[in-house]
Amino acid sequence: MSNFYTKSGVRLTYVESGKDKKAIVLNQTYQDYRETIKKINVPTFVAFGEDPKLNSPEAGMWIKDNIKDSKIKIFKNSSHCPFWEEPEEFNKAVKDFVDSIK
User: Fold this and answer.
1) pLDDT over threshold 80, residue 47
2) Predicted structure pTM score
């Protein structure tokens, strides 16, 4: 096993299996991205599920409040994966966001 760090400081660990190398993001969940998020300066769409099984919608609101020109959509029938749990609504929200920045 060996580590590689991206430019943003995220650690990737490579597990070598024969000739194949697979990147596994071991610490993505535990990274503190608060300062990085505050530096984002492009229009951003934030998608969060209302069901707080993994992440609270309040976390999404914090992200939205700390990224200039961001928009948030809270999906009523989703938890962590609104793109999977409400695909039609998610796709519409993404399309609406993209259309709004053209």
Assistant:
1) yes
2) 0.67
